[in-house]
Specification:
The protein is of the alpha/beta class. 36% of the residues lie in helices and 23% in strands. The chain has 19 helices and 25 strands. It has an 8-stranded antiparallel sheet with strand order 3-2-4-1-10-9-11-15, with helices on one face. Strands 5-6-7-8-12-13-14 form a 7-stranded antiparallel sheet. The protein has a 5-stranded parallel sheet with strand order 17-16-18-19-20, with helices on both faces. Fructose -6-phosphate binds next to helix 9 and helix 16.
Length: 581
């Protein structure tokens, strides 16, 4: 995830852009750049934060009323000056910034290389500038060249581009955020409303696939064929705090909703690092902590059941004491932050024992990337709330892509859309939260692939609501925990219609008979009939149920926390990144 911005008007563009980039920095902060057009195009960019780079390179000394800017969260290529945006074509006359992932960048780049284009960076972005250049060399106008280029791109993108000789900005969006702001004798575009909220409150909502051309006095929106289309501007009335959180009261709720978009980005992640390793090794150990450990349990299940591997999943802090990796072991370490000391220590230990280590992380150049042999990035963008939500779903998405991309029976592309449908039940889930927020103990039951999700649901609830919550495999109740069930104790039963559902019905009846208040997350009619309340999920290939079971549990935890007047973004005693053992 990156932050991008464009400005055309009468103000000093470098001032507007530098200020906007500071407001967009929550979207990425590894390198920063600006391009201003004032007869020629001037680019300044470097690795670092907006404050550091804009001060060192004196962004605001640049004269001109037309410009673009970018704050980067690296996906393709390390954070460094060459990979920082803006990028340009061979001539330096087509300059652009981009947010998203171009999935077909390898064939497109080689097509351009064959035509003599030379690249300065490792990014997927740069080829967009070269394509526009190529079409212009072929005799097309800048506008048609832009449209033709966008037509060639697969994946997600928001693009903001300057072309020398044009006093306008070309923009396009697909599966990546981009807003168009309309001021008096000035126009803006940006990844998010807060970047320009102090200049205008009038916005044109751009739809996926829209292309627009903006100039000082005017804007025109087109469909991807270049036909003009009408988009009606809206007025918004947000406070600056609301704006920072995209209109949501907390980052956690924003991040829960952002999952629709970021799962798409994660499904586009480059997982090639896992291919050879999974073919080469049959003995696999997974190490992780907290939420990432729950993702590892899903991976363990899938590797065993569908790939015939022998897999152990071990809590990172326990790993050096209970595990004996050898040179024949593949260790897969999962860490959102890439900074969790327990996980990094476990990786070091595994390497000392001669094991090969693959790390899944969200943060480019985090500590884990320096100790592991191979890295896969989650592409989930920065997560601000302490409780992990979108990064858990992104971990699942990357895991599924590693194991099932190319499997015709498993349609991963439907996941973002399905999550959207679950989010539509938010109000109902809020009402369910109201019924359990005064309880002291809450239990979660799951079996098979749903058990790690039950564990994740219990962790989410306890960390942000301070209610004691435990997850059990349904069959384990009768071996002890059943004695904790008494009148009115909420039991959240994860019972998708899969191979576990008849046994889950048994577990449900077991707790109901003892007085439990049963909340089922299900699509099985018999379970629905027995439960006191049901949160419905759609029918899917059973292997995909973890994605849809997770979302109601995140919303439930969030709304219980709100009912209890706790700030879910900052739960007591916890930190986002645990850098001590
Ligand atoms: C829970 C949560 C933590 C982290 C854990 C590991 O919501 O966020 O349990 O999952 O501290 O963190 P990473 O994945 O950064 O190693």
């Amino acid at each position: 995830m990156c932050g991008i911005i464009g400005y055309v008007g009468s103000k000093r563009a470098s001032d507007v852009i530098t200020e906007g980039l500071k407001r967009l920095e929550y979207r990425g902060y590894d390198s920063v750049g600006i391009a201003i057009y004032n007869g020629g195009i001037h680019i300044r960019k470097e690795k670092g934060t907006v404050e550091e780079v804009s001060t060192a390179l004196q962004f605001t000394n640049l004269d001109g009323h037309l410009g673009i800017g970018h704050t980067r969260w690296a996906t393709h290529g390390a954070p460094c000056k060459d990979n920082a945006h803006p990028h340009h074509d061979c001539t330096g006359k087509v300059v652009l910034v981009h947010n998203g992932v171009i999935e077909n960048f390898i064939p497109l780049k080689s097509e351009l290389e064959k035509k003599g284009h030379r690249f300065n960076s490792e990014t997927d972005t740069e080829l967009i500038a070269h394509f526009i250049e190529q079409y212009m060399n072929d005799g097309l106008s800048p506008f048609i060249s832009f449209i033709r280029t966008v037509e060639r791109l697969k994946g997600s993108y928001s693009i903001v581009s300057l072309i020398e000789g044009e006093d306008k900005i070309y923009i396009a969006r697909k599966n990546s955020p981009l807003i168009l702001g309309v001021g008096k004798d000035e126009m803006f575009c940006a990844s998010d409303i807060p970047a320009v909220l102090n200049h205008t409150k009038t916005f044109v909502p751009l739809e996926e696939g829209d292309i627009a051309v903006i100039s000082k006095l005017d804007y025109t929106v087109y469909d991807h064929f270049g036909n003009q289309i009408k988009r009606t501007p809206i007025e918004i009335n947000w406070s600056s705090e609301m704006a920072e959180k995209g209109g949501y009261p907390h980052f956690m709720l924003k991040e829960i909703h952002d999952q629709v978009h970021f799962i798409y980005e994660s499904l586009a992640a480059d997982v090639s690092a896992s291919e050879d390793l999974l073919n080469l090794f049959d003995n696999i150990q997974l190490v992780a902590a907290g939420t990432s450990y729950h993702a590892s349990l899903v991976l363990k299940y899938l590797l065993q059941k569908f790939k015939g591997k022998t897999v152990e999943s071990i809590i990172a802090s326990e790993y050096p004491f209970v595990s004996f990796p050898t040179k024949d072991t593949l260790v897969i370490a999962i860490s959102q932050s890439g900074e969790t000391a327990d996980t990094i220590q476990a990786v070091r230990y595994a390497k000392q024992c001669g094991a090969k280590v693959l790390a899944l992380t969200n943060v480019v150049q985090s500590s884990i990337t320096r100790v592991a042999d191979k890295i896969i990035y989650l592409n989930a963008g920065p997560e601000v709330s302490v409780a992990a939500t979108k990064t858990f779903s992104s971990q699942l998405a990357v895991i599924y892509k590693m194991l099932f991309s190319g499997d015709k029976n498993i349609d991963l592309s439907q996941i973002p859309q399905i999550i959207e449908t679950i989010l539509q039940q938010e109000e109902f889930i809020r009402s369910v939260a109201a019924q359990i927020s005064n309880k002291k103990n809450i239990f979660f039951l799951g079996r098979g692939l749903s058990y790690p999700i039950a564990m994740e649901g219990a962790l989410k609830l306890k960390e942000i609501s301070y209610i004691h919550a435990e997850a059990y495999p349904g069959g384990e109740l009768k071996h002890g925990p059943l004695s904790l069930i008494e009148n009115g104790v909420p039991v959240i039963v994860l019972a998708p219609d899969d191979e576990t559902s008849s046994k889950m019905l048994g577990s449900l009846k077991e707790v109901k008979t003892r007085g439990a208040y049963v909340i089922a997350i299900t699509n099985n009619p018999e379970i629905e009939k027995e439960a006191h309340i049901s949160i419905n999920i759609p029918h899917l290939n059973p292997i995909l149920y973890p994605f849809v079971l997770t979302i109601p549990l995140q919303l439930l935890a969030y709304y219980v926390s709100i009912r209890k007047d706790i700030d879910p973004d900052r739960p007591r005693n916890l930190a986002k990144s645990v850098t001590v053992e």
